[in-house]
Write a structure and sequence with these properties.
The chain has 142 residues and is an alpha/beta fold. It is built from 1 helix and 9 strands, in the order αβββββββββ. It is globular and about 55 Å long. It binds copper (II) ion (CU).
Length: 142
Amino acid sequence: MEQGDARRLGGRAIPRRVLLKVVGAIAVLGSGAWLTACQKDAARVVDMVGQSKYAPAQLTIKVGETVTWRNRSTIDHTATGDPAKVLNRANVRLPTGAAPWDSGTIAAGQSWGRRFDVPGEYRYCCLPHELAGMVGTLTVEP
Ligand SMILES: [Cu+2]
């Protein structure tokens, strides 16, 4: 009777244990993937801080990734990679085959993202603060 119960309980416990392990593994994998995704996202963010600064001013991403510019300051900024719009063309650089780009005004507290599909070295700047040295570089790896 006891053995029978134990077997019966055991018979039920094994699939339950397996199920718990599977659920646990999914939870661990899921949280790991989530953490990795968060870290990667964080690495593709450029904050606009203070009066005229991109932080980080230099960023490296992989082709096809999206960079998000986040205005954490109290004034308007842009992220502009269009030589026709800047005062000093040296503040913009585009890899061969890359189209000019411009965020337009990113107001305080707002964000703007752009996906980069052409690898190479980019140089961009903030239109209102170009002459104040608000210039950033982006390396897009193949
Ligand atoms: Cu600015």
